[in-house]
Description:
The chain is an alpha/beta fold. The chain has 16 helices and 13 strands. Helix 4 runs antiparallel to helix 5, helix 6 runs antiparallel to helix 7 and helix 6 packs antiparallel against helix 15. About 3% of the residues have low confidence.
Amino acid sequence: xxTLMTTDTIVATATPAxxxxxxxxxxxxxxxxxxxxxxxxxxxxxxxAWRSHQLxxxxxxxxxxxxxxxxxxxVHMAAPHTYTREDMVEVQGHGGSATLRLIVALFTRxxxxxxxxxxxxxxxxxxxxxxxxxxxxxxxxxxxxxPAGVQQAxxxxxxxxxxxxxxxxxxxxxxxxxxxAVLDFAEEDVPxxxxxxxxxxxxxxxxxxxxxxxxxxxxxxxxxxxxxxLVGRPNAGKSSLLNALLEAxxxxxxxxxxxxxxVLTESLNLDGVPVTLVDTAGIxxxxxxxxxxxxxxxxxxEIGRADVVLLxxxxxTNPSPEDAAIAAAIGERPGVVVLNKADLPxxxxxxxxxxxxxxxxxxxxxxxxxxxxxxxRSTLTQLVVPTxxxxxxxxxxxxxxHVAALRRAADHLxxxxxxxxxxxxxxxxxxxxxxxxxxxxxxxxxxxxxxxLDKIFSxxxxxx
Length: 464
Ligand code: GDP
C-alpha cells in the first residue's frame, strides 16, 4: 500500500525482473544524491561533480566491504525537473536481476526504503506535477495492447482529458457560486441569477460532458479488449480459421475430429481494439465422452463471455442437427456464421447456413486458401467495434473508473437541470452541482480519498 508520506527516499528496480542488456535502479527523495555519493566512484577514482541530468560512468561499490557490485552509468536529476518533482537518481547497471537486486539492497541498507507499487508516479501526483488521470495514463501506457491504446494513453498523459474536465468544471463553478451567494446572503438581497442564464451554463457543461462520454464505449474497448469465440462441430476448421485470422500457426490443426480440447486464446487487432480469439472444442449436441463433455461445458461458458461468436461450419459436409444445437447456444449474442472450406465442392446450402442464425451475417471463407478472410475480418470489426463516438486521436477515455465517474457527473447535471426547470428551490440545484463537481474531481484527483489512491496505485508495477 503506498504511503502518502514523501519525505523519505524510495528505491526500486525500474526495469522488468528479467535478464537484459541493461537494468535501471531508481531513487527518489532527499537522500537520493547523498546515497549515490556513498556508493559511486568514477573510473579515475574521483568524486564527480554530479551536474544535474548528466550521465557519469563509474562503479558501484559496497562502502562497508569495498566489494564492487557493477559497472554503471549514473545520473542525478535535481528537483523539481524530475518525474516525481523530487531529487532523483538513476543507476543503469547490467541487466541481470541478481545484480540489480544487490544494488537495491545496498541502497536499502544505507537508508532508502523499497518503493511500493506505483509510488514514483504517486509522488508525481502528490507533488502536483501530474493529476490523477495523467498518473493513471502511465499505467494504461504500460498495459496498452494496440497502437490505438498507446495513443489514447499518451493523450491522457498529455493532459487532454484533464483539460476537457477542467473546462466542464469551470462551466459549473460560476453558477454554483452565484446560487450559493444568494443562499448565503439571503437577507442582503443579492439578486438571483436568471434561471435562463443558469440553464445555459448547465446545458453547455452537459454538452461538453456528452462529447467526452461519446468516445467511452470505444475507448474502453481499446483498453479492455473484446472476446471472439469460435464454435462449431469438430473438424469444421476452427483452429485453421483462427490461424488464418492471425496469419500465424499457433493453434493445433489436426485431421482427427475432436482433438482441439483445450480453449486456446490469441489476440487480433481490429481497428485498434485488441480482440481475444478463443478456440473451443466443438459443442456436440450429444456426447458420451467425458473429456469432450468438458469441452462442451467450457464452450457454453465461453459463449456466455463472448462479445461475438463465430459459428464455424464445414461447407464441404451436409448440415447436421448438431449445428442447430450449437446455434441455439449462441441465441441472441452477436454472431456470424462462417461457412468454411469454400475451396472444396459445396455441400452445405447457403440458405441452411443462414437459417441457423437468422438475420446474422454469413461469411463464406476458406481457412486453407485465405479466400474471404479479409471480408470476415471487416464483418467482425463491424460487430465488435462501435461505429459511433470518437476514434483515433480523439479517444479521450479508456478507463472504467473515469467513465463511471463521468456518467455520475452527467446524472447529477441532468438532475440539476430538471430541478432548475421545476418549482423546487435553488438550493436543490446546488446539491447536484456539487455532486457533479465532486464526480469530475474524482477523475483528476481534485476530490479523492486515500483509499481510492491506494486502490489505483496498487495496480501499478513496482518501480513505476
Ligand atoms: P477444428 O476441429 O474445428 O478446429 O478443425 P481444424 O481446424 O482442426 O480442421 C480440421 C481439418 O479440416 C484439418 O484437416 C484442416 O486442414 C481442414 N481444413 C480446415 N479449413 C479448411 C479449408 O478451408 N479448406 C480445406 N480444404 N480444408 C480445411
